[in-house]
Write a structure and sequence with these properties.
10 helices; about 50% helix; alpha/beta; 6-stranded mixed β-sheet
């Protein structure tokens, strides 16, 4: 027998298969288009931000709170431009100096600061930064702040985390207690146009969450910069950001340091 003929399908009929196929096509199209859009909007952001401070942060390496009693606590700072303090007006306003002064005042000890943070660094730069530390140095405390450039340069999260984990392990092997300031929320950056700002906000928060998880697993203490100071930067960009509207101002570094100092104090007091 000849099977019954199916009714002709209307030209405007929509089936689940059709919808699914369109969804797949759209997903592929978007996935291919996003990198091009990101590059265009990133170029716009770079033109808006410029380089008013160059690429060298103020050198704040010295002993802070020198008048306190006891041997100095050895504190090392690693990471990107935020860790380096780019945008601070004076050496004492950099993140490292602010943290060193706050730590010294809290524990009543001098603090010897060594920063090997480099402006523009991704997480992949951490091994080279550690290699720049004196081979015989056994730091008491270490701060790592990195991740923003990983997001803007589209470094895969697992690659970024791998470098962070290796750095934490290397520092702990030297005897340091480690604090990780997780990736700040890049959605607070006004010079970054939409929809790129929304995208990098989502990506930076996701990376920060994974950084915190990885840090805890390796025995480091994470500090969420988004939770601690993110709202301040979003609400008061005129005062919290420096002239380039990208890096923290003197006040921005002060607030960020205030969020990090309690974690450093806790790590110092938790030493065996």
């Amino acid at each position: 027998m000849t099977p019954p003929r199916r009714p002709a399908r209307r030209a405007d009929a929509v089936t689940p298969l059709t919808v699914g196929g369109v969804a797949v096509v759209l997903a592929v199209t978007v996935s291919l288009a996003v990198p091009r859009a990101i590059r265009r909007q990133a170029a716009i952001a770079r033109r808006r931000i410029g380089k008013p401070f160059g690429e060298d942060a103020r050198n704040a390496d010295r002993v802070w709170r020198r008048r306190m009693h006891g041997d100095p606590i050895d504190l090392v700072v690693l990471g990107d431009s935020i860790a380096a303090g780019l945008g601070a007006e004076r050496p004492k306003d950099t993140l490292g100096a602010r943290v060193a002064k706050g730590l010294g005042a809290a524990v009543m000890r001098p603090v010897r600061l060594r920063s090997v943070a480099v402006v523009g660094s991704e997480s992949s730069a951490l091994p080279a930064q550690i290699a720049r530390l004196p081979s015989d140095l056994s730091p008491d405390l270490a701060i790592i702040i990195v991740g923003g450039n990983d997001v803007t340069h589209r470094v895969p999260t697992e690659v970024s985390l791998g470098h962070l984990v290796d750095a934490v392990r290397a520092l702990r092997a030297r005897g340091a207690r480690v604090v990780v300031g997780t990736c700040p929320d890049l959605g607070a950056l006004r010079p970054v146009p939409q929809p790129l700002r929304t995208l990098v906000s989502r990506l930076s928060r996701r990376l920060a969450t994974e950084q915190a998880r990885a840090a805890r697993q390796e025995g480091a203490r994470p500090v969420s910069l988004h939770a601690a100071v993110g709202r301040l930067f979003a609400r008061e960009p005129e005062t919290m950001f420096s002239a380039d509207r990208f890096h923290p101002s003197t006040l921005g570094y002060r607030r960020t340091a205030e969020a990090l100092v309690p974690a450093l104090v806790a790590e110092w007091r938790a030493r065996p």
